[in-house]
Every structure is written in structure tokens, then in C-alpha cells.
Amino acid sequence: xxxxxxxxxxxxxxxxxxxxxxxxxxxxxxxxxxxxxxxxxxxxxxxxxxxxxxxxxxxxxxxxxxxxxxxxxxxxxxxxxxxxxxxxxxxxxxxxxxxxxxxxxxxxxxxxxxxxxxxxxxxxxxxxxxxxxxxxxxxxxxxxxxxxxxxxxxxxxxxxxxx
Amino acid sequence: xxxxxxxxxxxxxxxxxxxxxxxxxxxxxxxxxxxxxxxxxxxxxxxxxxxxxxxxxxxxxxxxxxxxxxxxxxxxxxxxxxxxxxxxxxxxxxxxxxxxxxxxxxxxxxxxxxxxxxxxxxxxxxxxxxxxxxxxxxxxxxxxxxxxxxxxxxxxxxxxxxxxxxxxxxxxxxxxxxxxxxxxxxxxxxxxxxxxxxxxxxxxxxxxxxxxxxxxxxxxxxxxxxxxxxxxxxxxxxxxxxxxxxxxxxxxxxxxxxxxxxxxxxxxxx
Lengths: 163, 270
Description:
The complex is a heterodimer of chains A (163) and B (270).
Chain A: H1 2-14, E1 26-28, E2 34-36, E3 40-41, E4 46-51, E5 54-59, H2 61-67, E6 70-74, E7 81-82, E8 87-93, E9 96-101, E10 106-111, H3 114-117, H4 121-124, E11 133-137, H5 149-161
Antiparallel strand pairs in A: 1-2, 3-4, 4-5, 5-11, 6-8, 7-10, 8-9, 10-11
Chain B: E1 13-20, H1 24-37, E2 41-47, E3 53-56, H2 62-65, H3 68-73, E4 78-80, E5 88-90, E6 94-102, H4 113-127, E7 134-137, E8 140-143, E9 146-155, E10 159-167, H5 172-175, H6 193-196, H7 206-218, E11 222-225, H8 228-233, E12 244-245, H9 248-259
Parallel strand pairs in B: 1-2, 1-11, 3-4
Antiparallel strand pairs in B: 2-6, 3-5, 4-12, 6-10, 7-8, 8-9, 9-10
Helix pairs in contact in B: 4-7
């Protein structure tokens, strides 16, 4: 399943259906979880992509692979606020609910309503169609304390090796 | 935040609460509060619950999972709990065992659903050693290919809960309140409830099961008994649990929408 998810997420991001050389936008994890350049990462395995006044948030390929098939996503309403490190929702997979924590603080300006009908987007497209919330950051400097792609890749390797 | 204590042998401390016929909703509230507000490791064992009650997982939909008309007619309580997983009907024949742990309580255990589920089966391998053909099968505890224990979990940033309802005994008529779920493990092979489940009483007594569970825990943790009153006196009044009893109106609305999604009758006031 890990190989299929890696191939699925990679192919989806690269818009590929046949063999091709890997884009430099990707760093590869030895356990086949993809990590994208241009994103920042939290130790609780959420990613954030800051574009202008808004930051998108979701869970990483590493997280979705370890969680298993996502069958339900519980997200807040737009207009609420999130705090860095605080829980804003949950995913259900394999009989478990798992908290999703926000990497940054701010106001929720948009929620991915597609996840209500198609929670599996979190598995098949964790960095694109599986985005969860969009936040107007209240303190953009919080991004500075998050991990970059190389640091996060190493973090995942060390975490998996330790268990 | 208090730091969990370790005894001289290095096993983490686990506090044990033993209850008898405690209402399942209250048990769920205690569990959720301990998961969210405590920094200790806990085991809760509740030997039965007085009133037959349906308990659905966090994403459960009554119309899909329940035979609504008999549930409403017989006024069977329906709870939606804070953990994932499926639907059960519990009563005095059920035994509940719950583990609430810090993520570093079990060495080398990753705080994700499958590793936690596998670890739990190690505990119960010890409990059922020499008793029946026990194993973990697609997230259920089975003897052979018949389920007798249903599991559910909730995982936060630093802690997790794994709780199980065991069918020590059950009333056949109660199973009629539950529909065949659309999402079912492969090994179920479309069997109806009575062909799919079995009674733990055919393998082990209640007291033996509970004693063996406490002993198995003792090989992994330093277990200390705790009285429920000690927890209840320290409960935060600010904590609001998610587990709740569904109202008859909510269950009726679910039934109404299933039969006729756009019917005006679904929206009439009671």
C-alpha cells in the first residue's frame, strides 16, 4: 500500500501516467513517502503552503500512509480561529480518530468541503486535492519555526527508524 | 503538567479503575476527559453496563447503521462516541477494557492506529494464552473467525486511547437493532450478526478474564488501583466531552431523510 500511495501521490503531482524522470520539486523518503519542496512541515506531520495572504494546511504523505484509509474528515467552519500546535479537526481511519493540528495561528478563511464526500482525497492527493483548511496567518513569523523539506524528510526517517 | 512516575523496575505507571455496571455514556465521558486532560496512563475496566445501549463511532449515521423503527419504538438509547470505528449494542453481558497512554508509555510504539492495534493484541495474546484460537483479525478480536471484541481508538498529539467492548454474553434480540454495515471487514464475508459473532463466556469466566487482563498489564506497566471518586473530585468543569446521547428527533430525522429526502414532513416541527 505504501508503494501505491507514493506512486499515486507522485504521479498525481507530476501529472504523469507513464514513467518519467523525477521532478526536482520532490525529495524522496526511503520509506516511499513524498515530501514537497516549497512547503513547511510540523513535527505532528501537517504541511503548510504560504501563498500571499493565505496559507493552505493539510497532512503529509507520511501521515496518510501511517494512518491508513481515511473514511471521514471532521473540519471546522470558516470564520473560526486556529492556534499553532492546536487541534482543529480530526480524520477517521482504521477505527481511529486522529487529531489534526494547525502548524500556524490565524483565521480559517476556507475549508475543503470536498473532503466530506470524498475523504479518500487525503490519501490519494495529500498535498493538493486533500488540502484541509486555508488560514489567514496572524503571525507569519511562525513559519520560521517549522521544518523545511530536507529537515522533515530526515525527521520522518529518524522517527521510523526509532520504532 | 505532572510527569508520570516510574517504579524502580522501569515500567511506566498505569492507574487502574475498576467499575461494575457503570453507564456507558459516563464511562465514555470519563475516558475522554482522562485522554484530553490527564498526563497519566490509565486502564479502565467496566464489568457490564445496566441498560442495553447502541454506541456508534464518531462518523456513524443512524439511518445506515440502525433499524430505526424498532430502535425508536423500544426507546433504545443511541450514543455517538468520540472514537472511530463501528456500531455496537452493549448491555450487562458486555465487558469494557480501555487503555489510555502517553505516546512514550510503550517503548518503540508509533502512535498510529495499526501499531497500537497490534500492541493491544500482544496484551490479549497473554490473556487468552491456552484459551481458544484467539487472534487479532482486521482490527477485531476473534476466536477462529468469529468476533467477540470490537475496538476503537482516538489519537491526540501526545496520547492515545484504545478501548474494546467484549461480548462476554449477548441477547440475540438486541442484534436485530443493527443493520449489516456497508463497511465491514473482508473476513466477515457478508455473514449476519449471529453468524459473525461469538460469546466469550464459552471460553472464559468474567472474573478470569478480568484477572488475566490485569496480570497481563502488569508485565508491561506498574499497575496501581485508583478510585473513581478521586478522579471525579478533580474533574475540570470546563471540559466538554464529544460523546453524547442522540435525541429521538435526531434519529427520527435520519429515518425520514432516508425514506424521503425532500419530504416536507422531515422538516415539520415536533
